[in-house]
């Protein structure tokens, strides 16, 4: 299983981060997360999750650091689920 894709000559790990927020906080959370380096898109959505983020990093470890140190630190988030992209 590969979780990397070459982008402009370098391998990159991509993932979707599914986020649940406190009631009424989805738009603010999505806006704040969109400014985090490594986040390529951040959108508030309806359904079981409130925000869906697409992120990228050079390694799986850096992706984990992005999620734990940056994304999960945003006020209003109650839970995250990180789904790495695989290329089968």
What is the topological layout?
Elements: E1 4-7, E2 10-21, H1 26-33, E3 39-44, E4 51-57, H2 60-70, E5 77-84
Antiparallel strand pairs: 1-2, 2-4, 2-5, 3-4
How is this structure best described in words?
Pfam families: AsnC_trans_reg. InterPro entries: Dimeric_a/b-barrel (IPR011008), Tscrpt_reg_AsnC/Lrp_C (IPR019887). This is AsnC family protein. The chain is of the alpha+beta class and 88 residues long. It has 2 helices and 5 strands, in the order ββαββαβ. A hairpin with a 2-residue loop joins strand 1 and strand 2. The model has no long low-confidence stretch (mean pLDDT 91).
Overall 3D form: globular
| Cα-based radius of gyration, to the nearest Å | 13 Å
Structural class by SSE content: alpha+beta
Strand and helix order: EEHEEHE
Strand % is: 35-45%
Q: What name does the CATH topology carry?
A: Alpha-Beta Plaits
Q: Architecture, according to CATH?
A: 2-Layer Sandwich
Characteristics:
single chain; 88 residues; alpha+beta; Alpha-Beta Plaits; five-stranded antiparallel beta sheet; 2 helices; 5 strands; 22% helix; 42% strand; globular; Tscrpt_reg_AsnC/Lrp_C; AsnC family protein
């Amino acid at each position: 299983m590969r979780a990397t894709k070459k982008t402009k000559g370098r391998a990159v790990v991509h993932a979707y981060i599914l986020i649940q927020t406190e009631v009424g906080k989805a738009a603010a959370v999505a806006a704040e997360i969109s400014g985090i380096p490594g986040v390529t898109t951040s959108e508030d959505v309806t359904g079981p999750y409130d925000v869906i983020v697409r992120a990228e990093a050079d390694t799986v470890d850096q992706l984990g650091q992005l999620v734990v140190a940056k994304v999960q630190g945003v006020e209003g988030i109650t839970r995250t689920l990180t789904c790495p992209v695989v290329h089968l």
